[in-house]
Specification:
This protein is α/β, with parallel strands linked by helices. It has helices at 3-19, 24-39, 44-50, 63-75, 79-87, 103-113, 118-126, 138-154, 160-176, 187-190, 208-216, 252-260, 263-275, 306-312, 328-331, 360-369, 392-409, 432-435, 453-465, 490-500, 517-525, 545-554, 568-577, and strands at residues 158-159, 182-185, 195-196, 199-204, 221-227, 231-236, 241-246, 278-281, 284-287, 345-349, 374-380, 413-421, 440-444, 471-472, 503-507, 530-533. The chain is built from 23 helices and 16 strands. Bound molecules: zinc ion (ZN) (2 copies). One zinc ion (ZN) binds at residues 419, 444, 446, 473-474.
Length: 581
Amino acid sequence: MGNEDIVRLFEEFAVLLELTGANSFRVLANAKVARAAEASTIDLVHLARSDPKALSNIDGIGGGSAAKIVEFVTTGAVKELIELRTQVPAGLPALLGLPGVGPKSVRLLWQERGIVDLASLESALAEGRLQGLAGFGPKKIQNLHDGIAFLKTAVGRVRIDDALVVAESAITHLRDAGVVDQIEFAGSLRRGKETIGDVDLVAVAANAPRAMESFCSMPGVAKVLVTGPTKSSVRMEDGIQVDLRIVPEHAFGAALLYFTGSKEHNVLLRGRAQQRGLRLNEYGLFEDDGLDAPQDRRAPLASRTEKELYEALGLAWAEPELREVRPLDEVCGHAPLVTVADIRAELHAHTTESDGSMPLLELVQRAKDRGFHTLAVTDHSRSSVQANGLSIDRLLRQIDAVREAEARVGGIRVLAGSEVDILVDGSLDYPDDVLAQLDLVVASPHASLRQAPDLATARLVRAARHPLVHILGHPTGRLVNGRPGLELDMHAVIAAARESGVALEINAHPARLDLRDLHARMAIEAGVPLAIDCDVHARDGFDVLGYGVQVARRAGAGPEQVINAWDAARLHAWIAARRGR
Ligand SMILES: [Zn+2]
Ligand SMILES: [Zn+2]
C-alpha cells in the first residue's frame, strides 16, 4: 500500500459521489485529496500509522478525509466507499473512459435511459434510444459510437515509445549492474507493434538470483508481482508490466525466438519441426523421440541463436517485424527491409512560422547534420489556426526565406513546401496558383476527423487526385490510444493515389503511426510509394524516425518503396515530375 492507493481511493470517491448526484462541494473535496496525495512527497500510509493527527495538517486533506485514510490504512477498506459502490452499477464508471464523456453525461444515461455499462450503452445506441436525451445530439451520439469501438481495441496496451523507454532503461540498469551477460527485449516490442501489452526481456546471467534481485529493485518499480530463479515480473510506476526471463546461455536463441512470437509464427515453426520429426520449444530444436522428458537433458540440434534454429528447419532467418500471421515462405529470407540508415530525406517539417519550435535555419542545419540530402519545409496552411497556419502572403515570403536558407547552409537541398489542410470536402486550403509555386505539397486532414466513412473516403480520394499534391500526410488522422481518426475505404484511397502518382505518408510520430502497418502493406502491394516522415516540430523531432521505419518494415517495405530512401537525383526527379517540369 502506498500513496497511489490513496489517490485511487479518493478518485473513486469523487467519481461515485458525482454519479450518485452528491453536491459538487463534496465531489471537489475528494478530488482535491486525490491531487494532494498524488503531489505529496510524504509516505501517507506510514504517517497514518505513526502519527494520524498529522495527516490533516497536509494541504488539501481535511479532518474527514484524514479519518478515511486512517480507516483505509488500518482496515484495508472504507465503509462509506463500500456503501457508495452498492448504489452505482459496477459497469457504470467504465463509461468515463469514453472520450468526451464526463460524470454528468454518464449520470444522465443511467438515470434517464437505464444504461449501466458499455454493453447496455451499445444496445441503446443500436436501438436509437438516446434520441431526445438532453445534450445528446447527433454529433455526441456519433462520438459515443466511435468511442466504444475505440475502447474495445485500446484497453491495456501502451504506446510503443512508452514501452521502449521502459525496456531500454531496464536493460541499461541490468547491464550497468554487471548482472547479465546477454539481454534483449522480445515480444511485440521487438516486432515493432504500435502498442505493447507487457515488456518481455530475455537474458543470460551467471548469477541468476543476483540478476533477479537487481531487476526487482531497479528504479521505477512500483510492485514486484512475482519473483523466482528463472522468471520475475514487476509493475512499473507508469503501469507497464515487465517480465524478465533468465535462460541458459545455450538456449538464448530458442528463448528469444519463442518469446518474440508472434504466437501464429511460432505455431507455423512448430508445425514445420513436426513435419521433419523434430520438436521446437523455448529450449531448442530436438529430435522428437516421443518422450516427454525434460528437454534440457538432451542435446538440442540447434538452440544458441535464432539463425541456427531457422537454418536447422531449412529456413532463412525472419526479421522480427515480419513474424505475424503470414506463411513462412513469405517472411523467411524476405528481401532486405528498409532501415533507418537508408532514410536520406525529410519531407515533412515545421518551423517557428507555424507550430514548430525551431527557426528555419536551425531546422535546415539539423537535417544536414543527420546526413540528409533533402529537407522539405512544410508549415501549416491558413485554416490550421491553432497551429498558426500561414496566410498566402506569409507562405510566399517563406519561399524566399527557404531559398536563402538553402544557400546559407549549403550542402543540402531545401524544398519550399506546405502541409496544406485537406478541407472537409477534399479541396485544399490554398488556391492552385499558390500551390504551383511550391516545390512540394503534403496534403493532410486535421479537422473534421469524425466524418462518415463515405464522406471521408471521398474527401481523401479528391485530395489524392489533386495534380499538385505529392504526399498524403497522416491520411486517417488517428492518434494511437487517442482517437480513431477517419474510417477510410483504404482501397479507394490507394487506387486514387496510384492513378495520380501520389505517395502515402507513414507519419513516424509514435502517437500517429499513420498509415498503419496493414494499410502501408496495401499501398506497397498496389505499387504506391511510401514516404516515411518525422513531421518534425522540435529539436528532437527527427528521433522518432525509427518508429516510422518499423511500420514500413512490418509492411514489408524495402528502400525501393520508400521515396525518402531514394538518392537525391531520383527523388528530385520524382518531385519535379509532379509539376510537369
Ligand atoms: Zn499534420
Ligand atoms: Zn505536420
